[in-house]
Amino acid sequence: MARRAVIALNPAKEQSFNQVPGWMIVTVAASEYAEDGKYTTKGLEDHAAVACAVQNFMLSLTADGIGSKWMTGALGVAPEKLMVLAGANSTAERFMGIVWFGYPLKELVSMVAPPRKLGVDGVLKTLS
Hints:
CATH class: Alpha Beta
Distance between the termini: 56 Å
Strand content: 15-25%
Radius of gyration: 17 Å
CATH superfamily: NADH Oxidase
Number of strands: 3
Shape: globular
CATH topology: NADH Oxidase
Helix content: 25-40%
Largest sheet: 3 strands, antiparallel
Strand order of the largest sheet: 1-3-2
Number of domains: 1
Order of helices and strands: HHEHEHEH
């Protein structure tokens, strides 16, 4: 039922959405927000902690041979609509993404990660 509801929000992605066995919506309920609803410094720490937890969850899946992908804008669905589907409290929570997961058709060890646009030299700045 939840998959059907997401597909209804973006029917153009139905084929892609139907190929994904598992979905997990990720939100953060930061300990505080500014009056304009944006993160405070403390709220940003909470956001970062959730991001770390999701990465650890995905690494755990990989260790068990389960593939995963963190999806946000590529879903083509407004985060607010996904929050409503999940029954999230939009006053207290913020959308962080959806983690797709499932057993891949090929074993993970046989897959090669795509090359990064920027290597370490492209993002590392040495301060003197």
